[in-house]
Amino acid sequence: MHNMTKKVTISFDDKTIELPLIVGSEGERAIDISSLRAKTGLITLDSGYANTASCLSSITFIDGEKSILNYRGYPIKMLAEGYDFISIAWLLIFGELPTTEERSSFRKILTKEELLHENLLHHFKAFPDYGHPMAMLSAVVNSMGCYDQTLLEAGHPKDFLLSASIIISKIRTIAACTYRKSMGLPLNYPNPAHSYSANFLHMMFSLPHKEHVPNPDAVKALDLFFLLHADHEQNCSCSTVRMVGSSNASIFASVSAGISALWGPLHGGANAAVIEMLESIQNGEHTIDELLELVKQKKKKLMGFGHRVYKNIDPRANLLKTAAENLLEKLKIADPLLDIAMELYEKATKDSYCIEKNLHPNVDFYSGIVLRALNIPVNMFPVMFAIGRTPGWIAHWHEGQLNDKKIQRPRQVYVGETLRSL
Ligand code: SDX
Questions:
Q1: Which residue in 231, 383, 382, 220 sits closest to 316, CA to CA?
Q2: Disulfide-capable partner of 303 in 15, 273, 287, 299 (CB 3.0 to 4.6 Å)?
Q3: Does the Cβ of 69 fall within 6 Å of ligand 1?
Q4: Is 364 in the pocket of ligand 1 (CB under 6 A)?
Q5: What is the rounded distance in angstroms from the CA atom of residue 408 to the CA atom of residue 61?
Q6: What is Dmax (Cα atoms) for the chain?
Q7: Model pLDDT, residue 102
Q8: How far is the CA of 388 from the centre of ligand 1 (A)?
Q9: How far is the CA of 237 from the centre of ligand 1 (A)?
Q10: What are phi and psi of 281, to 5 degrees?
Q11: Which residues have CB under 8 Å from 194's CB, separation 6+?
Q12: Sheet of strand 68-71, all strands in order from the earlier edge strand to the far edge
């Protein structure tokens, strides 16, 4: 829902033009510059797109100043307290919370689609044990499309729900296989008796002689972890998925590209970087005060802090902090890194530089503590983020296929050599 009744006037040289002003349903205002070049010959430059909307979207709303994060209009805290991951996946993709029947049929499709084609398992024999799980995840997700040509069709697949379910269900199975490969352990098959998140823990930790029985508190914390990572509007990886989808590439190719974008330490790789940062304090590489000094000198980034949109605390950080504390208490685990994280939080949020730069904890600051309590190794942290983010990527890919009629192709300002001869 948006309206375009108002106009913005731009004057330059001897010209004045009017451009439409778009007002979003939450009051966000944007100048529609679609006709700017045609009317003036001018283009705009916006490094990192910090001031530029790539699309109209109805999926997720963030107010970075007020720490607001809503999925399809519902506040994240309310959803986290009342729903599970697969219900939120349905909400993000289809716009409404599922009815009991819709949730039941969705769960049945996810269960039916949990197995990988046996030939896909051979990929894991070819990967080196030391291969990074994100490289394997991206490669095998893209390869899935090879096993069902109907799903590779350009643009919007006939059976979108099937395509979406295949990826949401199988990305979990593939992720567990990447872990088992890296540990030199036999790959596990999914167990249809388990819920979505319990099945993942089973596939990660069951041994040939001993089935892993997932702890209910661990399953609850993992499901919440996935839910809190499910979408975050036009972040780097989501924009990548939409851009790749805008060329009518398949949903598998688009999600695979999103996984690669998420891998970067400034994005989905930050959860692992936070643990490395906390461990550097724990092993005495530097004190918290020395670390903050290095940050001020721009020699280090404060991992798990700062955000392009949030200029206040990321609401997901608060929810993950509580989940980490509850899980450690339920599992009777003491994690010294949580104590270090709490001390770092106290110092950083009182530090004048951090206050000046709006450095507040983001989703990645406490998420690693939850994953450590679940015995997930650090190199799997971005993979866990990818499993959670898959419904959001699919929802945006779907919205892009339905609404964005143009292939995404930004312009540039050329600053290279002008015409010259040899
Ligand atoms: C995610 O976009 C999303 O929605 C992403 C995400 C999602 O759910 O998809 O929320 C997930 O990626 C969370 C962010 C995880 N990354 C980290 O925790 C890495 C550490 N964070 C920073 O690298 C940084 O905060 C970014 C990359 C997240 C944002 O970078 P921006 O957009 O450049 O931040 P900014 O423009 O607000 O920076 C303002 C100033 C700059 O300094 P000056 O140029 O003004 O001197 O603050 C500085 C930045 O250098 N700054 C930091 C900092 N974050 C910003 N300085 C030190 N440490 C940091 N963490």
A1: 231
A2: 273
A3: no
A4: yes
A5: 22
A6: 81
A7: 97
A8: 21
A9: 15
A10: -75, -45
A11: 202, 214
A12: 60-63, 68-71, 74-75
Burial class (CB within 10 angstroms; exposed 0-12, middle 13-18, buried 19+) of 280 = middle
Which residue, by CA, sits nearest to atom 35 of ligand 1? 308
**pLDDT mean across residues, the chain:** 95
E strands, 24-116, are 29-31, 60-63, 68-71, 74-75
Does any ligand 1 atom lie closer than 6 A to the CB of residue 235?
yes
For the question of residue 267 being annotated catalytic, the response is no
Ligand 1 mean position, distance from CA 185 (Å):
37
Q: What is the per-residue pLDDT for 71?
A: 98
The residue from 232, 307, 396, 398 that is catalytic is: 307
pLDDT digit string, tens, across residues 350-375: 999 999 999 999 999 999 999 999 99
Would you call 396 a catalytic residue per the annotation? no
CA-wise closest residue to 336 among 299, 281, 256: 281
295 lines ligand 1 (CB under 6 A): yes
290 Cα to the center of ligand 1, angstroms: 20
Please report, to the nearest 10 degrees, the dihedral formed by the alpha carbons of residues 48, 263, 173, 397 taken in order.
10
- 287-339 residue pLDDT tens: 999 999 999 999 999 999 999 999 999 999 999 999 999 999 999 999 999 99
303: its two tokens: 């991992």
Ligand 1: atom nearest CA of 48 is 32
- Give the active site residue among 364, 396, 398, 404: 364
Structure tokens at 301: 């980034």
Report the SS3 class of residue 381. helix
Residues 6+ apart with CB under 8 A from 405: none
Atom 36 (ligand 1): residue with closest C-alpha?
Answer: 308
| The two structure tokens encoding residue 215 | 């702890």
Closest CA to 370 of 323, 315, 418: 323
Residue 13 has pLDDT above 90, yes or no: no
In this prediction, residue 221 has a pLDDT band, given cuts at 50, 70 and 90, of very high
350, 360 in Cβ contact below 8 A?
no
